[in-house]
Design goal:
6 helices, 2 strands, mainly alpha, 235 residues
Length: 235
């Protein structure tokens, strides 16, 4: 479609086993996002080390404290006292990564989460954690649950297990990709004078609201699925 750029470009062709693969826009944007998060972590670490523990935090330290307390409360509320301490850091990192990726479109980048090659690995990590926690806490009960309520439900239960990473990854990927494509169509097809103000409202919804919502949903479902698999009977 002439005049429309979906921000998918290939750079630096690499030969692997007779096949040419490319570093794409998604790889470049993901590296930029990771660099921003690493820089944020370094600055936060420096501020915390220099902070006076006898004084109330101010400025940037308030932001860090609010973020940590919010994530901790969310994880403890959904995973309980036994599981939460082990997953606070992971959930916090996943949420920050997804939120930053989803919001990167505001700064002219192509959101890395608009690439299925980014969302699927994250969902597979969640899937592995679900299975591991299920086996760790339920032992043989995890396997037994695949045959409940009766034996013939085994295929359905098995499909349900493997549907988890697919649904997690596709939900995030499809929502972010659709927003990216809509903005590309708007910028590519509408007259320039309309673009001075009108797309701002769409950015607020497609990038900010939808991006934050999808990051929250992914993190929330990760916590719920892992907690349900562990079945510790504790909140």
């Amino acid at each position: 479609m002439e005049g429309v750029d979906f921000y998918v470009h290939g750079y630096l062709p690499i030969q692997l086993g007779g096949t040419t693969v490319y570093l794409t826009t998604s790889h470049v944007c993901l590296v930029i996002v990771m660099a921003v998060l690493v820089l944020f972590a370094l600055v936060a670490n420096r501020k915390i080390k220099k902070a006076d523990p006898t004084k109330a935090p101010t400025g940037f330290l308030n932001v860090i404290e609010l973020a940590v307390e919010t994530v901790d409360k969310l994880v403890y509320d959904n995973m309980g006292n036994k599981l939460a301490p082990k997953f606070c850091n992971y959930i916090g990192v996943v949420f920050m990564l997804l939120l930053t990726c989803n919001l990167s479109g505001l700064f002219g980048l192509r959101p890395p989460t608009a690439d299925y090659g980014v969302t699927l690995p994250l969902a597979l990590i969640t899937f592995v954690m679900i299975q591991y926690q299920g086996i760790k806490w339920q032992k043989w009960g995890k396997l037994k649950g695949l045959f409940e309520p009766i034996f013939v439900f085994f295929p359905v239960n098995l499909i349900s297990e493997f549907a988890t990473p697919i649904s997690l990854s596709l939900r995030l990927f499809a929502n972010i990709l659709s927003g990216t494509m809509m903005m590309a169509l708007i910028y590519g097809l509408l007259p320039r004078f309309i673009l001075w103000a009108w797309p701002a409202a769409l950015h607020a919804y497609l990038d900010v609201f939808a991006g934050a919502l999808q990051a929250y949903v992914f993190a929330m479902l990760t916590m719920v699925f892992i907690a349900n698999a562990a079945a510790t009977d504790e909140t």
